[in-house]
Structures are given as C-alpha cells and as structure tokens.
Amino acid sequence: MVRRVRRRIVVLAALEAGLSAALGLLLLGAVVVLLAAQDLDPAPLRWALGLGGVAALAGGLALAARRGLRLARSELDVALLVESRVPGLHSGVVSTLEFAAAQQEDPVTAALVASLAERTAERLEGVTPGHLVPAQRAERTAHVLGLVVIALGLVAIVAPGPFRAGLHALVEGRASAASHQGPQSAVVEANVRDIRLRLHYPAYMRRPVREIAGAGGDVAAPAGTVVEVRATALRASRDAMLLMGDGQRPVPLTLEGGMDVAGSFTVTEPTTYTFRLVTRDGLRLDEAASHVVDVDPDHAPEVRLLAPEADLELNKQDRLTLVYQAADDVGLGQVDLVYRKVGGDVVRRRVATLDADLRHQGDAALDLGDTEGKLGDTLEVWVEAFDQDTVGGPKVGRSEARRIKIWSPEEKHEENVDRLAALVEVMLGVLADRLESPIDTLSLERWTDALDVASSASVRMRKVIAALDEVIASVSEDSMMPAEVLGDLTSIRDRQDELRRGEERDMTAALVLDADHPRRREMLTLLFAHNNEAVDALEEDIVKLEDLVDALREDKLKSQTRDLLTQQAQLMDLLDALRKSGDPSDVAKAQRQIDALQDQLRSMMEQVAKQAKRLPYDNFNASALDPKGTHKDVMDFQKELDAIRDLLAQGRIDEAMKKAEELQKAMAELMASMEEGLEGTGGGGEAQQKMSELEQRLGEVAAEEQALHRETSEIAEAQAEAMQQARGESLKELLREQKEKADAARMRLSEIGPSGMDPRDQEALDAGKEGLRELSERLGAEDVGQALQLAEDGERQLGELAGELAKGADAAKEGAAQLHEAGRKARAAGQAAGEIAEALRGLQPKPGEMMTPQDGERMAELAKRQGEARQKLEGIGQEAREMGHTPGMEGLQQLMEGAGQSMEQAEKRLSEQQPGEAQRSEESAMDALDRARKRMRQMMQQKRGPGPGTGLSHERAEIPKAEDYQVPAEFREEVLKAMREGAPQRFTPMIQKYYEELIR
Amino acid sequence: MSVLSRVLLAGLLVLVVGPARAASGPFAEAMTLLSEELVGEAVPLVEELERREPDSVDTRLLRARLLYMQGRYQDAVDAIERAREAGAIPRQWRGFEEQVRSTLQVVRGFKAVPTSRGNFVLHVPPGVDEVLIPYADQAMEAAWDAYGDLFGYRPSEPVRIEVYPRVEDLAAVSTLSVEDIQNSGTIALCKYNRLMITSPRDLLYGYDWLDTLAHEYIHFVITKRSRNRVPIWLQEGLAKFFENRWREKGDARLETSSEDLLARNLAKGRLITFEEMSPSMAKLPTQEDAALAFAEVFMAMRYIHQSVGPQGINTMIDVMRDGGSDREAIERVMDTSFSRFQADWRKYLGQAGLRTMPAAWSPKLYFRNKDKSGDELEEIGAEKARRHTYLGDRLRAMERHGAAVKEYAKAIDVVGESPIVAAKLAAALNALGRWTDALDALAPVLKAEPDYVLIWLHLGKARLNTGDAAGAAEAFEAAVRLNPFDPDAHVGLANAYEKLGRTEDAARERAQVALLAQ
C-alpha cells in the first residue's frame, strides 16, 4: 500500500510540474511571437524564448522534485501520511515498517510483525491510493493550461497576422517577415497620386515658399528647408505615414476623409522617402519605389581682390585701399578686412554689413599707421566675406592675400651696409688669391701657372667690379647714406677696374706668346707688377671699405641709442601718469612701452653682433671673454627693463619709476660715451657732425622742457584740486550742466545724415562728434583743464565744418537743403562748445590763486629754468643758421622759432603763476622741439638726394580707389578672353575704351 | 706689474698706510705695530689691553684688526659684533668693518692649500683656479729661499696668499676701485700681512703672475725687515729689480718701453730727480713722468746693487728701519753725498747702452670687461704695420695662411721686431707646417720680449715639430708661467715631456688640461 501511495505522489508531482512548465512556455511564446510581429529584432526574442523555455522546464522539475521529495522522501514518510489520512491505524503502518526492518535479526519479532501487518492491512481494506493522494492540483493546472490554449487559439484565429508574422520573424528573420504577412501587408507600386510639395526655405535665405506639383515627390532643397507634403491616397485608409531613409523612420501623416494625406519633414541630408498606408481593413501597403530628397549645397562666398593686384611696398603713413568683389549663392552677411603681421596675430575689421546681398563690391582702407606693423615689417592683408547661414553656421570666403611691406629707409640702408660688408669678404678672397699667387716667383717654368692665376684673378676682379656696380647703384638710391660714401665707392670701383683692364691687356698679349718667345720674361715681369699693384690697391680699399662699414654701423648704433633715449623718456612720462592716476590701463601702456624698448634693445644687440669681426684670436682665456662694452650695456638694460616690468606688475610704481630713472641715466651715459668715443661716419663730414651735435643739444633742451612740463603739471593739478575743494558742489553743478550741453550738441551732430556730404566733411563731422564725446567725458571726470582745451578745439573745428558745409550746399546740385541743415546743426554744436569753453574759462584760477607759497616759489624757479632753456634753443638756432643754407634748414628754423615762442609764452605764464596756461605752452613747445629734432635727423640722413639720372625707386605706388574699378570684373575678363582669342568685331570699341581707361 | 701701475699703487699705499706715529700707551702702540704690519709684535699688547680693559669698544676693535691681519676674517667679524655690544662703533672704524665683511664674503669657500714646505698657505677658490697651485708652490718656495738669502729675512709664520678669481674681488678686499686696477694695472697687492693676487684667468692672455707674486713677496719681506719704513719708490725699485731672482740668477730686465723712454729722456737730459720722486712718485705730474721715474729707480737699484751688492741693499733698508731717510740710507751705503751719488748714477746711465726703440712694446694687461680682442693691434705703433697685421688676421681667420704670412711679413718690414706680429707670423707659418720659418720669425723677439705668452706658445709648437723636445718644454713652461689657463700650453708641454720621457710630468699636465675643462 505504502509503495503504491508513494508512486502516486511522484507521478502527480511530475504531472503538475510538466503542466506548469507548459503553461509558462505557452504564455512566453505568445508574448515573444507578438513582439516579433512588432518589427522588433527577432534574434534577442529567440533568445528570450529559448531561455524562457529552459527556465520553465527547470522551474517545473524543481516544483516536482520539491513536492515529491517532501511527501515521498521515504516509505516511513509515506506511512505517516497514510496514518494521518486514515483514522484508526494507530501507528500500525509505521510500526509494521519499522519492525519489518528488525525481523531479519530476531525470529520472534518477525512473527509479531506479521501479525501487526495483517491487522493494519485489515484496517486499510477499502482504502485506495487515490483516496489518500488526490489529484486536484494537477487537474487545476491542466484546466488553466487548457483555458490558455483555448484563448490563444481564439486570438490566433481572429487575428492570425501577428502570430504568423511573429512566428516567421522568429523562424526566418525580420526581412522576410513582411512577405509572410499574407493578405495583411503588401508592397504596391504606388500608394498616392498628385503629390504636392511646398518648400519653406530657412529664414536666412529670405526665399518665398515654393510649391512643386506633379514632380513625383522628388525634392532638392537647401539644408534646413521644411518640406510640406500633400497627396491623395489611392485607397481609402485609416492610417498613413512617410517612411524616411533606409531606417524607414516613420513620419506620421494626417488623413482627411480617408484619402487626403498631409505632413512635413525637414531636409537635413540626402535621403529617400516612401508612403505607407494602412487600409481600413488593416492591410498595410508599402510603396516599392522611393522618392528622392537631395540637399542643395549653400556655397561659401567667393571673394576676389581687385586691388592691389600685386604685393606692395608702402610707407608707414600710407593708406592702403583694397578693392574687392564678393558673391554668394544665398546671401552675403558681413565683409571683413583682415591683416596680420607676418608671424603675428590676425586682426580683423568689419568693413561692410550686408542684407543678404548676392553680390557686393566695395573698398576697404587700412591706414598702415594704425597697424602694429613697424618699418620693415611685412603685413598680409586680405578680405573675408561671410554668408548668413544660420543652419550650419556662417560660411566664409577669403580673397587671396597681398603682402604689404612697410617701406623702411633704415632697412634699405642696413641692407646696403650689409652688402658692403659682404663685398669686403669677397675682396679679401681676391686679395688672398693674389697674395698666394705663384707669379711672384718670376720663374718662367711656371709660366702656365702664372697665366692661369692671372686669368682667374681677372675673372674674380670682374665679379668684384660687378658687385661694386650693384652696390653703387643701390647706395645711390639710399637717402640715408652719407654723400661721401658714394664717392669713395666710385673711386674704389674705378681704380680696381682700371687695374683689371691693364692686367687683362697684358695677359691677353702674353697668352699668344710662343713657348720660346723672348718677350715671355718681360711679360711675366709685367704680370708680376700688375699683381703687386692690385694687391696694394686691394689692401688699401678693403681697409677703407671696412672702416666705412664700421663707421656706418656705429652711426646706426648711435641713432638707435638716441631713439632708445626718446622711448625711455616716454616711458618716464607714462610712469609719471600712472603714479598719478593708478589706472590699470596706464600699466598696460607702460608695459607696451617696455616691450617697445626691449625690441629696440634687441635690434641694437643685432647691430652690435654685426660689428664683431672674424679674427683668429683663439688663445684667450674663455672666462675673461664676458660680454663687454655696448653689448654688455644693452644686456644690462634688458635686465633692468625686466625688473621694471616686474615692479609694475606688483604695483610698486615708485620703485619702478626710480629704476627707470636710473636706467635713463645709464642710457644717457652710454650715448655720451658713444658720442665721445666715435668720430662719426667715415664720410659724414664736418657739417654732418655739427648737425649731429646740434641735434644732441636740441635733445637736451627737449628733455628739459619735458621735465619743466612735468613739474608744471604737478603744480597745476594741485591748484585744480584746491580749486575743486574750494568750490565744492557749485563746481560740480556747473560741470554737470556743461556736460549736458556737450551731450546735447553731440546729439545734434548725430542727426546729420551722410547724404551728399564730401568725405572730408564727413571725417570732420566724425571728429567733431568724437571731440564732444571726449569733452563730455572730461567734464564728467571734472578735468577742467582738458575739458577747456577740448571745448575750444570743438568750437573752432565745428565752426570750420559749418562753413565748409555751407559752401558745399551752395555748390551742390542735389541735396543742398540737407547740407544747409547739416551746416546749421554743426554751427549750433560749435556755438555750444564755445559756450562751454567760456564757462570753463571762468573757472580758471586767477594768477597765483589757490597756490601754496611753496608752489609760487617753484613757479618762479621754473620760469627761470624755462628762460634758460629758451636761451639754449636760441643758441642752437643761431649755430644752425651759421651752417648756411642746407635743404630743410628753413623749415627747421621755423620749427625752432615756433618752439622758442611757445617757450617764451610758457616762461611768461610761469612768471605770472598761471600753471594751466604755462602747461599748454610747454606742450606746444615740446611738440615743436620734437618735430625740430626729427627734421634735423632727416637732414642728417637725407643730406644727399638721389643722384641725377638715378630716379627714385621708392616712389610710393598710387593705390587705386574703388571707383577706378567700376568696370565689372566679368567685363574685364570677357575683354581679356576676347583679346586672347582674337577680338570679335563687336568688342573692338570696348577694347579701345579699356585701353583708354588703362592709359588714363 | 707695469711701471705706470706702480705710480698709482705708490700713492694709494701712502694714503692707506700713513706715516708711522709715535706710540703712546698700549692701544696706540699696538695700532702702530699693526700699521707697520708687525702682527706678531702686536699680539702681547692686544692681550694686555684685553686684560686691562676687556669691555672697551677700542680693545675689541683692536682685537678685530689683529684677527683680520691674521686672516681670521670670521673671527674678526665676531669681534666687531662684540665691540658693538660694548658700545657704538666709532665712525673711523666703519670703513674697516666694511672691508672685513667684504673680504670674508670674497674668500668664503676658498680652499687653503699649504705649499710643499709649509712656508706659504695658498687660498684659492675651488675649481679651475686650482690649476695655479703646483706652479705657485714651486715658485714661492723658491722665492722663500732666494729672498731669504738676499734680504736676510724669513717669515716665522706661513705667509698667506689669496688668489681672487676676478678683478672685482681684489677691489672688494682693498681700497682700490676696479677702474683703478684696470687703468693702473695694479693686479696684485701686498698689504694687511698677506699677498693678494688676481687669477690670470681674469685677463685675456693671463700675465706674468709668478714674477708678480714674487714681486709682492719682496714687498712683504722689505716691509717686515724695515718695519714698513722704506718709501714706496724705493720699495718698487727693489721689488722690480729682484722679482725674477727666484728663477734666474741674472738681474731683472728693464722693459723695452721703459728702456726706450729712459734712453730718449737721457739723450734730452730730462730726467726726474730723486728729490722730485720723494716722498711719493704719485705726485709726479704725468704718467710718462712716473714711468720715467720708475725706469730711473730700476737703474738706480741696478747701480747700487752692482756697486755694493746685496749686503749694501740690506744696510740701506736697515738705515731706514732705524729712522733714517731714503737719502741718508743711500749716502750711507754708497759712502758719498747724495748729489755725488746722482752724478755717478747719471754717468752710469750714460754707459749702460740704453737703446731707443720706436716700436718698443710693453706687455699690456688685457682686462675682462675692458679690453677687446682687437685692442692689441693698437699696440703696434705704425699705422701701415697695423693695417697689414689686421689684414693678416682677417686672412688667417679665413684659413688663408699663405696670404696671411705675406701680410705679417709686410707688417714686420714696417715695424721691425714686434712680438705681437712675430707671434702671429709664427702662428700662420706653423699652420702651414713651416716650422723652421716659424722659429726664425720668433728668434728676434725672444730675448727682448719674454713676457708675451703667444711667442712661447708658437715657439713651443715649432720646436716640438722640429724635434727639439727640450726646447719645446722650456717654451711651453714659459707659456704656462704666463698663462696657466691656456690648454694649448699644457697639451704642448705634456707632449714635450712625453718625448723627453718625463711621463709623470706629462700626466700632471694632462691632468691640468682636464681640470681646465671643468
């Protein structure tokens, strides 16, 4: 009995587990098939199904094992189960089983067990295993399974498509799934007719909406275009969509009346699309052929530079005008003028802002003086045009670049000096050849050698003379080269050439002599004499040339040192201003000045390095070969400037100033030692030396004037401060009123339109506006002195502008009324400036007012010094006059007289204790002195103009303006092409005109 | 040291040392002894003062001065600090304090190397300057013997010698400025109980630094023997006359430029009188007068030495030590009146065979930061010769030695026996392998101008290549004596020693080259 019960338990557990696993698997399978039908990738689904099956099976087995093991682990367990289910057994089943195990050892027990077994069997009579272990659980599971199977079967019957598609997808993959959809999915030739497209272009293109009908649905449009699609379905449908690209990205379409579909997409890249319809009976219809979407490219603008047509060399003060033509397929946005110093940073300036123009021609001016380019630098300049693409970002077109060399007389001069130095080396080589010549042996046995050497020397001499000719030509155009140099070079050249010709004549004669000719010895003696003569001349000329080069380089160094001193004085002024203002922007200015000084020092180092000679002094003690002389000084200066820079960065202005003063002193000492130690240019002459000395003295006067100005400014500032404190709020109020007046005047000027105005008047107008802006700013800062100056300038300049505008209006054929109106506004603004000036003059302190007694004494002292400085200037002027008439002397005298008058005025104002007035006179004097010094330097440099017949190779190129290029580029090209191909008759007058234009 | 340089030195020393003053009390007495550089004799006085007035500022400063004279600079600084603790440092001592501190600063880290017999202690900066040690050792020990015999004085304590790497250091430890040193050529000093010398490394071609050391040592000996009472002009005459005696028996040579100057002035009858020289030559109006005075003093020493021998010289010194004047000393030694001595000496000059030499050359000191490589060309008197020499140099730099030889030869035709041009010519000839021609080129200038280092260098090369190893060694030794920092000289010397079989000496020279390469 127990065994039968146990077997039933196991069988039922296994059955139940199997049913559960089947149920799980069935549900999982249904879900997977339905998912596969939804275009999901079948591969992972297959995996899910497989794994789910295994899991279900494993779960079922686990369930069976658990149940079977728990209930039928042993016969004893089963016996307990039987006893628990059948009342009245009183442990008979368990005891029978236990005693049965023991009966084999004990015969008595066996009898007892048999008896117990019989009684128990009697009690179990009528009891079946089915009563003891019912099968309800398995039956319940079987019912659930049956219900699920029936439900799924019903669903599959009602909507078999998904199941079929899912099954196919699982079995054969996604691609083929569609084809097995049977009547629920189909591929048709077309789904729609009458496709209508409306193209909405990106806003920046400013294009109208374009409609395309009857084009079959293909479209080409710029990126960013929104394509609105409308079409009529070929079948009544309940759903419609576009499938975009290979990935068939669905774009839903609206459906009206089951037939009219509509929707849109945005063009971003080349692609295709198809229409999909789902009919009312659920049939999904896809198109076999797709419609093409192309992207129309938005090209970068094209820019052409019409002028200048080639690289140029220009003066620093020149204005470069670039004429350009730009075009874009969509629309131009901005045009920039771009330049950079070779190796430097790019600088750009907007020259035109366009309103999506497709073509644009214009010109852009660049004042070389406004660039960072220094004399001798090369700038690269070009034009860049941007389109207005807001989709992919603005695209840029760039013209070709032009290289603009900033012409530097100094650089040309330096090149000439270098060429002279190189010539010395060549001549040394010839000298060496001649000195090592075997001709001096006077031995006929070496006749051939002698002739070879003579020929070779002659050839080399020809080269030397050719090089001399080149140098002479170049030097003759070098305005900085002392006149005597050309004379020296010419005499060297002539002498060498004469010697060469003499030697060549005799050498030619010698070449034709037979081996036993009696004149051979005589000829050898002659060649020997020629060689010696040439050696003597070369020795002399090499040393002379080298002395010349040395002197020129020393002069250059002196000139650099003078410039250094000027720059250093400017640094002192900047530091002084910084000490007073504490303005961080002044720190930057000072740092820039230090940069400039260091550049100058580097340039001096190069010059010093050039002066070093190649000499065979190779037994020096290396440690004793420290840098020395100017080289060392210059290196020390660099270090000092670094220290000043550091101090500035740390805000230690006073210390920086002190160091800068020491540096200035050291530089002045270097200059003095150079002036003392050098005798000046070899060819400089007495007049030039005198001029150099006067320039030096003028520099001293200028330095004194700067010092006077500095001290006067201090007193003026103290006085102004005292005045402000004394007048307090009333002053503030007055200045506020004047500021408002200045602002109002500026506004009036801003109302003036540009129409019909001469460009110069336009510039004056801009300057006037800027002046009033500055005036307003100074008034806001309560800087009465500066404001007064600006107001007076404004009154004068705007008055002049008003006059010019009135004249322009009278002469104008068109737009006279606007010009008259502009003139009126300018005059009103000028009058406002005058009123401001008047008000400010009233604020000026009376002589000696608001001044401490100490400052009063200082003023008297300054007046005395001013008088002395003026006398020195008069002395210099007198000595300059005594030098006689020299080109440029008249202008120089005028400048010095002007400076003298300003100094006299300053002296008077200082005596009258009017520091503000004195300050202005001192500024005029400083300006005139500076210009006088420059003039003197020019006179020294340009003591000699180009020689007759040499021409001026450095005449500045005339840069054409935009209006010179009004002939369209295409026309020019057409003409040129026609010329190349042989001009057709119809072009003849145009060509004629073209040439006339060119000639004009 | 050139004649001109002595002028300035004389003036400076007179100013610094000052006349000996009468002692009154131990402090003043000790100060006097220290001024007389008699350090050993000052010690008991200082100690006595320290017992009596240990807390006195003056006593402590006196101790500082003594320590400074003993070369104990750190101790001297400490003593000054102790003096400061006792009270304010008097104004007149502030210069002293500054000098002590800057000396300490300069010599800090120096290596102290006693010479082989311990008579001197060399203080040199570690590194490349150590190359000087073996030569200084050899020379100074020889000088100790030579001048000990000559002047009858041998220091009881080792003499301190300090070698400074830079002229600026000599200026820092003395009262001279760099400019003074460079202009006067005062490259070494004997003062403060020690010898001070600038390393030849700091000059472009070095200089005769061993003779200079010996020269300073003579000052040291005479100062000690005379209690610092021999006037500067006589000091300089004696030192110059005997400075070569440590290495050769003969009298020192009068430089050709001095000989030329003296001969020209003698011919014109325009000599500086001894009255004009006394008490200091620094008061002479021009540098040329000073140079002439030095040449005269040199010849006076030679005359006295030839007349009375070394013993007479010592007697002269002793007279001055005992308070006699320079005139009295000469009268005593020469056993004649001073005016008679002058007349005899003029007669001696007339018979000395002095030559005028238009192209005379005097060895010049080429200073770092002052002289340029081309400055020596300026020493060539004639412009034409200078031009040929310059062209020769330019051609030699282009390695056109044949052409350079021609230019140098032209320069010699103009200027005659110029050591500068001769050395350049020899260099070009050596470069061409024309060794014998190089020897011929140098022969005329060898005796006349032995202080020009390049002569010896090129001579050594030519001799070595003509098989004269002994001659080459002699030439290279002379080159090393003048410029021990020239590796060419050491390499040449090593090669010469090797050929002579002196492998140990050769190895030492090669080691010197390695040291120089540091």
Can you describe this structure?
The complex is a heterodimer of chains A (1000) and B (518). Chain A is of the alpha+beta class and 1000 residues long. Helices cover 61% and strands 14% of the residues of chain A. In chain A, a hairpin with a 4-residue loop joins strand 6 and strand 7 (249-252). The longest helix of chain A has 66 residues, at 685-750. The radius of gyration of chain A is 53 Å and the shape is elongated. Chain B has 24 helices and 5 strands. In chain B, helix 2 (26-35) packs parallel to helix 4 (57-69), helix 18 packs antiparallel against helix 19 and helix 20 packs antiparallel against helix 21 (453-465). Chain B is globular, with a radius of gyration of 24 Å. Chain B starts with a helix and ends with a helix. In chain B, 63% of the residues lie in helices and 5% in strands. Chains A and B meet through helix 9 and helix 12 of A and helix 17, helix 18 and helix 21 of B.
Summarize the model shown:
The complex is a heterodimer of chains A (1000) and B (518). By secondary structure, chain A is an alpha+beta fold.
Descriptors:
heterodimer, A: 1000 residues, alpha+beta, 7-stranded mixed β-sheet, disordered C terminus, B: 518 residues, mainly alpha, 5-stranded mixed β-sheet, 24 helices, 63% helix, disordered N terminus
